[in-house]
Amino acid sequence: GEDVEQSLFLSVREGDSSVINCTYTDSSSTYLYWYKQEPGAGLQLLTYIFSNMDMKQDQRLTVLLNKKDKHLSLRIADTQTGDSAIYFCAESMNRDDKIIFGKGTRLHILP
Amino acid sequence: EADIYQTPRYLVIGTGKKITLECSQTMGHDKMYWYQQDPGMELHLIHYSYGVNSTEKGDLSSESTVSRIRTEHFPLTLESARPSHTSQYLCASSEPRYNEQFFGPGTRLTVL
Questions:
Q1: Which residues on chain A place their C-beta less than 8 Å from a C-beta of chain B?
Q2: Interval A79-103: pLDDT, tens
Q3: What is the per-residue DSSP string for A38-79?
C-alpha cells in the first residue's frame, strides 16, 4: 500500500540550512506536500509540488523531487528559531484522493 | 487564512461520558476529515466525508462516530469515553484544486 517515510528528528544550528528528506512508495502520486505543525496547533500547508516538476522555490523554501527514486526534500535556508516545528511530508494520487502523511520530522534549532 | 474551527480546544471528562467534538468550516469544502494524533506523533485518519450524507471510516479503527448533515459541519461523537481515547483530535477540510487540506487548531481530549 501507499507509504511515506521520513526521519523523525533533525537538529540544525540557527542560520544554517535545514534539509528534511522523505521517500514515498506510490509512483502514481501526483501531488506532494510539505506541512508544518507548531506546538499545540493544527497542520499548515507550507508548499506543494506536482509530480511533473523537479523543483519549486518559494522564498526560503526549496522543494526537490526525484521521481525516479521517489524522494522528496524540503530545504529551509537560513533556519530561524521560528522554524522549530514538526514537518510532515504527504502525497496524494489525485485531487479526489485521501492524503497520506508521513510520521513527521521534528526540527530542533540549536543556538 | 483557513476558516476552520474546532470546539472545545481542551476537554477533560470522566470515563463513560458521551461527548461531541465540533468542527465547522466556512470555505464551502465538500471533503472533511478527522485525524487522531498523540502529542508529537503521526496522524491517524479516523473518519472522512466527501459531502453531505457521506461518511467513511478511516485507516485507524475508532469507536467514535461522525455525521455530515450540513456541508459546513462535521461533528465527531464518542458515546462512552475511555482513558484510551485521550489524544488530540484534528479536523480538516480540503479544497478541490490541489487537494490542499486546511486544519483546525485541534481538540485536546483527556479522559480520566
A1: 31, 33, 35, 40-45, 48, 86, 88, 92, 94-99, 101-104, 106
A2: 999 999 999 999 988 767 788 999 9
A3: -TTS-EEEEEEEETT-SEEEETTEEEEEETTTTEEEEEESS-
